[in-house]
Specification:
Blueprint: H1 11-20, H2 29-36, E1 42-44, E2 49-55, E3 60-66, E4 69-76, E5 89-93
Antiparallel strand pairs: 1-2, 2-3, 3-4, 4-5
Length: 98
């Protein structure tokens, strides 16, 4: 699939973005991809849920989405990132979006 998004940002850049953005739950996923690129490292779950990761050697930021909206943002271990692995830190959580 072709897209017009920029090159995928590093984990460090994604972390800075997600820590600074306001009203994250209301921001369309496409807006985020326009700024950070669309990661090729993603996992399509079920019922409209998709998990994306921005990764570099020292940082990995994982977002959980549902129906084009961000539900949670996690900082995870960039070396050991199993599908359901624990987060090192929760950067954003929107329980209403689940």
């Amino acid at each position: 699939m072709q897209n017009n998004y920029p090159e995928v940002a590093s984990g460090e850049v994604a972390e800075i973005y997600f820590r600074g953005v306001k009203n994250l739950a209301e921001r369309p996923l496409d807006d985020i991809f326009q700024l950070l690129g669309m990661p090729v490292d993603y996992d399509d779950w079920d019922l409209g849920r998709v998990v994306y990761q921005w990764r570099s050697a020292r940082r990995c930021v994982r977002i959980h989405t549902r129906h084009d909206r961000v539900n949670a943002v996690y900082l995870v271990d960039p070396v050991d990132t199993p599908r359901f692995g624990e987060a090192l830190e929760v950067i954003f959580d929107n329980p209403e979006g689940r």
